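On clarity, I found the account of how folds are encoded harder to follow than it need be. Since the whole study asks how a given chain folds, the encoding of that fold should be made plain. The format is easy to grasp once an entry is in front of the reader. For illustration, here is how one protein appears when written out as sequence plus structure tokens.
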Amino acid sequence: MAVKKAFTESDIYISPAILNEYRTVPLEIKAEGKITPLQFEALIAGIAAFVINAKIVFPRKRLKLCRDEKDNMVLECCLEAKADFLITGDKDLLDLMDIPFALKILTPKEYLKHNGKGIGTFSGIEK
């Protein structure tokens, strides 16, 4: 539901680093046996539907804000896109307190309650 709402109410942004993660992580979790071939196909289809509607930004500033170093690429994308909010279930991102730019980090559930339009980045795949 949150993805559908984001598609209709917001601009979605991704970066080359996020695209790379969307390309590699599904293959890794499939190789590790964490998902079935059917789940893999559904994941790839979902990513494709998401990416085709997203705008690509090329972050110019490197950030070191998150305890999980890999999550900084999501914040860099948000900064470059001038995103109003980030929709994520990632605890490392949700726990951030001191972000040096205007960004609301919301869970998908919180986003569904959000009434305003805006621009955002949707953070998705977890290993």
Summary: The first strand starts at residue 10 and ends at 14.
